[in-house]
Each structure stands twice: as C-alpha cells, then as structure tokens.
Amino acid sequence: MTATQPQRISEMQNELTETIDAALPRNMLEMLKQTEEQIFEGWNGYPTIFSERHMRTLLQLESKATDMLQDNIQNKANNVFVFSGCGTSGRIAWLCSRAFNLLLRQHGIDPCFKYVISGGDESLIVCNEIAEDDPPEGIRNLADMTIDNKSVLYFGITCGLSAPYVAGQIDYAMLQENITPVLVGYNPISLARDKAIEKWPGKTCRQEFFQLEEEAKKDRGFILNPIIGPEPITGSTRMKGGSTTKILLETIFLSALNRALHLSKTSASNVETGPGKGLELKRHDSSEISKSVIPKILEFYWQAVSAAYGSACSALASMISTAGDCLRKPGAHMYYIGADTFGLIGLVDGAEMLDTFGASVDDVRGFVKGGWATCHNACGNIGNLGNLFRISTEQFESDILPSLTVDDIVVLLGSEVASSHLIDQLILCPVQLARISIAVNDSASPCPVPESRYCAHATLVPHRWPDSDKTQSFALVKEVEQLGQELMVKVALCAVSTGVNILIGRVYGNVMINLTVANDKLFYRSTEIISQLSKSSVDVSRAALLSAIYGTETLTDEIDRKPVSEHVLAALHVKMVVPTAILLATKQAKTVAEAKLLIQSTTSIRLLMQC
Predict the structure, then answer these.
(1) Mode of pairing for the β-strands spanning 179-184 and 152-157
(2) φ, ψ for residue 6 (rounded to 5)?
(3) Which of 170, 348, 353, 404 is least surrounded, with the fewest CB atoms within 10 Å of its CB?
(4) Smallest Cα–Cα separation from 240: which of 447, 495, 27?
C-alpha cells in the first residue's frame, strides 16, 4: 500500500469479528455466519450482488457463455472457458472447471473448461504464494493453453485485485482478438494494488485493471467486482472471497448451460417440424428465462450458506473444541477424508493452513477416495513429488493410519468416504473421529460408523430448490442442489479450521498473527499487521520484520536495499516470523533470540500479544 492509496476493503478488519479470538466456538460460528451473509446483503452502502449493475454484468456474461456453448454444441466449435487465479482463487478455479466439465459430459457435450493456478498443480496441495508475483509466467501459462481456440472467455480471479500473475494475464488477454477478459475481485478498481512489480517493470495491477475498465466500456471485457465487505479473519480470502467466486462462476454457467440446452432443444424441434414462430422467439424467450433464473440461483446459494450454520451449529462447535484440544498438543494432526468433491474440498482446506495460519505442512491434510484420478487435474497423478502429494484414501491407510494417536482427529466428509476396511480400522483406532454429512430426507446419509464413536457429527440439512420453481424453464435443479451441498461443506469446513486456529492462538482479535511471509503481498500485509498490533510506524514495523527474517537486530544497508523478493525467499526458511517481529516492535523482546524463547514458552501466540 502506497502512502496515498487507501486500504483495500479486502484487507480491512471486519467489525463483526473484532472479538472472535475471545469467543466460544458457538459464538465464533454466529460471527462467521453474519460476515458470510454480507456476500448477499452487501456492505457499507455498496451495490449488492443483486443490484442492477452486477445483475447486468452477470446477464452479459451468461449471454456470451451461452452463445459459446451453443456454438460448441451445434458446430463443434473450439470455444473454451478459462478460470485463473492464485492460491484459493486458483483452487476454486480448478474445482469449478472440473465440476462444469463433468456436468457437460453428463449432457453429452465435450468438456471446454480449463483452469490455471500460479505455481501449477503442485499449488493445489501446497502453498506456493511466491508464484503469484510472476506476471510473465502467468502470460505464458495463458498463451500456451489458448493459442488454438476459436473464442476464449477468460476469468482472472484476484479477490483483493492484487495478484500480479493475474494482472499479466489480463494485459495479455486485452491484446488478443480471440480472448475476452473478465476480472473477478471484491474491491473497487480504484483500490486495486498499486505497488511496483519486480518482474514487470513499469506496470502495476491497478494500471492494468483501469485499462480493462476502459475496454469494458467498449464491450471488450468485463469487470465483476461486487463489494462483499472485509473477511472475518483479516485478509483471509479463502473464506468469503472463495465462496463468492464459487457462487458467481456457478451462477453464470448453470444459467448459461440451462439456456444453451433450451436453445438446442428448440432448434432440434424446429428441424423436425420446420421453421415457425418457436424459432423466431426462442432467443428472446431464453433470455427472459435467464433474467429470472440468475437471481433465483443467487438466492438459493444465500439460503445454502445460511443453512451451513443452521441446525448443525452445535455439532460444528463441538468439533472445533475437540480439534482445538487435539492440535494444541505437539505433533497432533487433523485429517479430512472424503469422496468426490467433498474430499477435494478437504484437500483445499488443508492446503491453505500454512500461509494463512503458519501451520506446519502436515498439521491439516486432506485425502480423497480415488486420489488424483478423482481430481481431473491438468497434470494427472503427481504423487511422485513427495509424501504431501500422496492424497488417496489408500495412501492414508498405508502412510498415516499406523501412526494415529488419541491426539489426532479424523474428519469424515460425506457418506461413502473410503473403503469399508479403512472405516473398520478407524473405528478401532484410538483417534478422535468426527463427521460432516449431508442429510438425505432429513436424516444423515449412511456411513458404517456407530454414532457413539464420533466426538462430533455435524449433519448439514441442504436447502432445496423451491418446488414452485421446478418448471421447464430451469432444467438443472439436481445439479444446482448438488453444488449447493458442496458450498455448504466448504463453508462448514472453513469455519471449523478457522475456529481451531483461533482456539490454538493463531489469531489476535480478527487478525492472523502467524501468517507466512510467502510473497510480495504478504510481506506488506505482515508489515501492516505488525504496525497495527504494535502501534508502531510502518518503518519500525518493517525493520522488526526484517530482523525476524534475518535473525539480527542490526540491519545493514545491504539487507535494507534487497528487493522484497529476496526478503520473501529468506522468510520461507524461518518459522514464527510475524510473531517474532511483533514482540520486537512492542519491545516485549529486545533480541530475536529472546523473542524466540518467549514463543517457545507458550502454546498460544495470542497470549503473548496480550502481555
């Protein structure tokens, strides 16, 4: 953030969660629910997601997507849709592209969705935030996958409007005749990040996004940036930002596919019966359908988010308490096990613990039935990259099961989560067992685990598409209900892992205090957090951060002159950087060594901040 640029909304503190670090788990969940509802209710007077402005953009995008899908269906055209992002945004891009391709196959249509994530498929499992700072690599990645396509609708997702990787792709897309760029984020364009980019001299995110704003006025691009308010945990866009991205992409493309199927059916009917009034009116009729369907899908997701915090709230609170008790102990772990998308949501949640909360890479991990074959990722099976990439339930059974203890917790996601043999083994293990399931006909879906074996079982009651709306105008009711269930699991799992990290002292107020300094954005965010919590100047806070990174109280000119990228690379090898810097800036510790001793003496970093 420059001296003249106001703070981005996505980096502000949310007043609804200012005391979440002192709340009981049940109260934490109520605070999280209130902040999630800002996605739909709006924030601070900005136009809501249902406003005329955002609805117009959604309809325009849906119309373009419909035309491209129909062209593919009728003419075997080579049109594609590309979702791209870094970190959480890249993982949501992957999940959505996978879901839509499976949906197309179910309707006999060739898959045409692709995803790009900075750092490649490794970033689906482990954080690689430094790749976000590389616009030239982003350009290469997008160019390589779109060079032969007729038309490309590209969605660059950067919740804070701050990712250089995405800015590079936006710049490239604006220069290509066959690519229509769409910027997705949750700040006003005027608040887009305006810092210089080391690997892209002379350009900034803000500069590129302002240029796209001009292109959008000429119908050569789009900006979709509803203001959803600050995150419940400051800057942690894996929560509201991730959910909103999933909601928007699914709303656009469920409606587009519904409309394309309607048009194709009408065209087929006219081929059989000859041209007539139906052919003349079909486009107008389908457009009117979309004007009704899009807000209904958004309202459906609103109810789904609320339902995630509904009747299961007490069980989720118990899960947070038990998991918090477990993870306070050295060497304890939380594991997620699930099938299909529920298992993949567990993978994503586990992957985000390192950079968000400074957790160890194996503190929280996800495993999915079928492993990489279930992922449908670009690179296929990358299990050979190391133990963290061994993600199948079979590999959990061989790698993890033998070492489970009473201090570990395993959370089962859904019903048919793994083989009966693994379930039987887990029942007999001393491990804590929990479950998040979806109610089927108002009861939990079957799973061969005695209810008494669970320390907590949260049964989410899914929101149903209203019977009154189950008409021929929307043919994808079953699909939207399934995606709504996935959103519920995503919201519930984020709430649990956030609550656990609050309980074990990695959040102060609503600020994450043990984030990893993993890229340019996080270096400056860390400086701001240190300044805010220590009530020190930015210069003092930056000096404390550098002292923590380099392990010295004496900062030489050589250190001070290094580019941020070198500070980031150095920080990746140091634990507890931000807590150490806060103790130095507040003068609770005079030396780095003293700060490290204080941190080692406590089980809660938050408690040190209160001294």
Answers:
(1) parallel
(2) -65, 160
(3) 404
(4) 495
- Report the pLDDT value the prediction gives residue 349, as an integer from 0 to 100: 97
pLDDT in tens, 316-356: 999 999 999 999 999 999 999 999 999 999 999 999 998 88
Please answer whether residues 156 and 170 qualify as being in contact, where contact means their C-beta atoms are separated by less than 8 angstroms.
yes
Name the residue among 408, 393, 426 with its Cα closest to residue 362: 408
- Torsion sign over Cα 256, 257, 258, 259: positive
Question: How confident is the model over 534-564, as pLDDT tens digits?
Answer: 999 999 999 999 999 999 999 999 999 999 9
- 25-36 vs 313-327: helix crossing angle, rounded to 10: 120
> Roughly what angle, to the nearest 10 degrees, separates helices 313-327 and 477-503?
40
Interatomic CA distance for residues 22 and 368, integer angstroms: 34
Q: Which residue has the tokens 């229509």?
A: 180
Which residue type occupies 445?
S
Tell me the backbone φ, ψ of residue 284, rounded to 5 degrees.
Answer: -65, -45
Say how far apart CA 356 and CA 363 lie, in whole Å.
13
Output the pLDDT for position 385.
Answer: 96
pTM, two decimals, is: 0.94
Structure tokens at 289: 């359908």
The residues near 167 (Cβ < 8 Å, ≥ 6 apart) are 135, 138, 156, 158, 197, 200, 203, 204, 205, 208, 209
- Asked whether the beta carbons of 606 and 513 are under 8 A apart, the reply is yes
DSSP 141: H
Q: Cβ(150)–Cβ(79) under 8 Å?
A: yes
What average pLDDT does range 494-506 have in this prediction?
Answer: 95
* HEC-encoded secondary structure of 447-468: CCCCHHHEEEEEEECCCCCCHH
Cα(564)–Cα(586) distance, integer angstroms: 23
Over residues 281-305, the mean pLDDT reads: 82
**Tokens found for residue 461:** 């009651």
pLDDT of residue 446: 61
Amino acid identity for residue 17 in this structure:
T
Segment 266-289 mean pLDDT: 55
Strands (E), 101-187: 113-117, 152-157, 179-184
**Residue 513 and residue 582 in contact, taking contact as beta carbons nearer than 8 Å:** yes
Residue 140 has pLDDT above 90, yes or no: yes
- What's the CA gap between 210 and 270, in Å, rounded? 45
By the 8 A CB rule, do 286 and 257 touch?
Answer: no
Could you tell me if 324 and 505 are in contact, meaning their C-beta atoms sit under 8 angstroms apart? Answer: no
How confident is residue 4, by pLDDT bands cut at 50, 70 and 90?
low
What is the tens place of the pLDDT at every residue in 160-210? 999 999 999 999 999 999 999 999 999 999 999 999 999 999 999 999 999
With beta carbons less than 8 A apart as the criterion, state whether 269 and 513 touch: no
Beta bridge partners of 439: 444
Instruction: Specify whether the backbone of 376 is left (phi greater than 0), alpha (psi in -120 to 50) or beta.
Output: left
Residue 379, amino acid: C
Length of the chain: 611
Encoding tokens for residue 274? 């000859």
CB atoms within 10 A of CB 188: 15
Residue type at position 386: G
